[in-house]
Amino acid sequence: MVNNPNLQPSTFNPKRMPVITGLGIVSAAGFGAEEVWGTIASGTSGLKPLSLFQSSRYGQVLTGEIQRDLIGLGAPTRSSRSDKLGWLAARAAIADAKINFRENGERAGVLLGTSVGGSFDSENFLTTLIKQGKVRARATRFHECSSTVDLIAAEFGLFGPSMALATACSSSALAIAQAAEMIMAGEADMMLTGGADSLARMTWGGFHSLLLVDAAGCRPFDVTRGGMSLGEGAAILVLEAEESAVRRGAKILARLSGWGASCDAYHATAPHPQGAGATAAMQAALRRAQLEPAAIDYVNAHGTGTRENDVAEGIALKTVFHNRVPPFSSTKRNFGHALAASGALEAVVCIEALRRQVLPPSPGFSQCDPAIGLEPVTELRSAPLTHVMSNSFGFGGNNGVLIFSKPDTTPQTRAPKKIQVAVGGLSVIGPGTLMTKEISAPFPLGSGLVRSCGELTDAVALLTPNQRRRLSRLQQMALITARHSHAPDPAQRVAVAIGTGMGCMEDAGTFIENVVAKDEREPMPARFSNSVHNSPASQVAIDQAARALNSAPTNGEITFESALWQGLSQLATDEADCALVGAVDEVNKYILHLGQRWDAWTDKIIPGEGAVIASLAPAEKIGASLARVTTVKLGRYRKPFDAVREVDWITSALDLKNVGIVLSGAPGFRQLEPLYESVSAELDRRAGKNLEHQTYKQLCGEFHSASAFGFSQAVKLAREKNCGVLLFTLSLRGAKALCLVEP
Amino acid sequence: MPSLTHELKAKIIESLKLQDITPEQIADDAPLFGTGLGLDSIDALELVVLLEKDYGIVIKDIEEGRPAFRSVQTLAEFIAAKRTN
Fold this sequence. Notes:
Oligomer: heterodimer
Radius of gyration of chain A: 24 Å
Structural class of chain A: alpha/beta
Helix content of chain B: 40-55%
CATH architecture of the domain at 5-405 in chain A: 3-Layer(aba) Sandwich
CATH architecture of chain B: Orthogonal Bundle
Largest interface: A-B, 20 and 20 residues
């Protein structure tokens, strides 16, 4: 038996089917569903020349920029631009769903896709630093991709699971899919889910360096198309268990009846030329919904307007629908490509199309491309719509597909199974030496001691020449760790969930420094393709030929547990035979700087780095396993912190009788130390004995993925001491996680 | 032209961080992409940056550069032609 309540039979209930009861949208095509639909219906472009920041080189390029006063509309001032967009969409969605979280905040969570995070504001910080030599710390406080999720949860009082995913352009589609799995598994009754991404110099310079931007605006599927248009925005859905919606008499806008994920495992930025991953993701969504391809009445295509995407997607559509492709369109010219938010923006288009029984047109298209041989919908027209599909494909070949259905349909969505999960392999790159890192210009902010994994020379020598010369250290750490935890088996469906708190800051920081210092001359395309948070996960997928879900959660100090949850969920829904889960973070001048500004590190525990990857599979499929993972749960803690309430939360998920050792994240960040200590004391009181308490950050240092190192210690202790080990982790921004490892 | 091809080889090795190879080991007409040096589409974009930075040649569409990127020889001819224009 699995203790995890998310896998218990009571949750296999048709009443747990996810429905949409509210939505909020802010975009270049308008604010709110009515305004947006006006733009969609008239086939109008939402694109304008850029005004958000100076771009001497590309300033006249048409862009989906939001040109409204976000603070004037009520968004919090102490936040990044992405945070503001997300907050405005969340406020609108909550109002639309008529929810009061004061009554049921514990049963409500938030799960968003984001790729840019607070980059726009951090770039302003860096620009001021480089050009004027002034330090303005506040801007960098919202840098992390999880900032928007933490802000929304704190502002609106949600205390269920919270998580951010960063898989580039498929982020919000995968976030919505994961939120649906949380609802079906009984982890929450409601999830605010979708995505938020602002324009930023990083993505602006990056996509231009890839020569993927069409200055005249995107023309998806058209023979003359010359690339994409960048955009920004946020869309948030209120996804709710059907029984919860019925109980509170909420209006049901649509159902989410299917979702699917896949990875091309082909290239860092380009799609598979025959659309293999896109095909697999659409087929996975149909399988989840238990629908035949012919049941789909409309597809909102990814349709970016790049040559490669539109050809590959066209081939995939013809394959999935056996050459009878349903009406389809791309709404990218309405919005611009809002990257991580695009899947959520297009989910709103799909829901509105279902409600209005109208097919949205595809602006920018006029002439069919013989290489594609398909024509999208060109004019708004009425059509009976029952099931519609939305495609999102991202860097690293990360694909997510959603299927929305009319409220009056009877969903046949496949539910998770009850399974035992075992750890088949585990590998760690941990810190060896204590070393000093020099901090060089433009960071005149001192230096500090860090726990470093040192040079990876010997291990890197085993990688291919292209992996050695092209990939940065963070990705190499992930590749090496994955190779040691798992032996590829072509017969296996392998899912990858490798999180990172800060991502490839070495690449992102260098790229931005260069853009600012050289005023957009000499861009760095290789740095940009490395800079996305999902580059370690997608490089592992290429190396291991892992073609099931590929995800990169980024969630503060519970980044690893978020990856673990996703891996277990893929196994429980039989979407994968094996899940490679883990987390990776490195210490470099950018990260050290961000940490110093927060003044968070104690003298005892210094900044660290490392990579941990575990290979998980259903226990019956593994001969000899290292340990079992029997419970994983995510949530948020209330302030003021109450240890009694937190231990209630822990004991609602597991029986303390099964716990012999408690591994906590203390000592570490000084704000969290007293909280951990109070929980440890309360756990002893509840257990009626002194449990064995151990810590791990004295070994690995403090960093976002440190709890992954804690997990490796938990597996080791469970084996050595033959007892259950509880790993309990708190994040600085209010999230918490528990994980029980048993022999 | 021989000096340009030699210069290009050194620049390619440096900007693409090619390891364990010297300019002398790259034949003028050896394919850069696919089977030859094993470069890929992101390397092509790095070459676009190199052409702009060191030779003032701006390529806005990768298709435009594709014939030039076949080998060091074609790249040198492309640069020479642009210079005389």
